[in-house]
Amino acid sequence: MKQKSRELTTPLRNFSLQLSPTPRGARLARLLATEQLRSWGLPLDPARQVIAELSTNAATHGRVPGRDFRLFLYAVADTLRIEVTDTRDDRLPTLSDSGRGLLLVEALTDRWGVTPGLPPRKTVWAELDLAPEPKNLHSGGAGGLPEGPHR
After folding, report:
1. b/e burial code for range 46-65 (CB count within 10 A of at least 16 → b)
2. If you placed Cys at 70, which of 10, 85, 128, 133 could pair as Cys (CB 3.0 to 4.6 Å)?
3. Can you tell me the distance from the alpha carbon of 29 to that of 51, in angstroms, rounded to the nearest whole number?
4. Average pLDDT, the chain
């Protein structure tokens, strides 16, 4: 019996940067990632805003002198995953932190979270679904919500 080879039909695109945990490093992360997204033909927003927030958090709250942070972008099928890894695993981000950065990430992304890494690392990640929302085929109604049973 002949075995079929399994091919990846969806392109996997990735991009990685290692940057200093400074305001300049956070700004460079946003600028260089924006150019990468543009070259992939992906929408720039809200991705660049999420990248800016996560990179700024890594440079501010995840900063350890002499240790860089890393930005990863993965685009697979209709999902863009943004990961920022820093070297402060003792400081986990929460929505209740002062400031509005993670509230923006929560509002702009479809999913986000924190994954522990090899000590002393942690990764804050966020995912954006890039597929267009299905069009409502029915006009009228309650904002596209299914109607209740007819009597």
Report:
1. bbbbbbbbbbbbbbebbbee
2. 85
3. 7
4. 84
| Positive or negative torsion for Cα 135, 111, 85, 22 | positive
Categorise residue 92: left if φ over 0, alpha if ψ from -120 to 50, beta otherwise: beta
Q: Are 110 and 128 in contact (CB under 8 A)?
A: yes
Rounded (to 5) percent helix, strand, coil in the chain: 25, 30, 45
Q: Give the SS3 label for residue 110.
A: coil
How big is the CA angle at 148 (ends 146 and 151), to the nearest 5 degrees? 145
- The whole-angstrom separation of Cα 151 and Cα 143 is 21
**Can you list the pairs that 92-100 forms with residues at least 24 positions away whose Cβ atoms lie under 8 Å?**
92/122, 93/57, 93/61, 93/124, 97/61
In this structure, are residues 50 and 126 in contact, taking their beta carbons and an 8 Å threshold? yes
Place 132 in a pLDDT band, splitting at 50, 70 and 90: low
Q: Are 71 and 59 in contact (CB under 8 A)?
A: no
For the question of whether the overall pTM of this predicted structure is more than 0.90, the answer is no
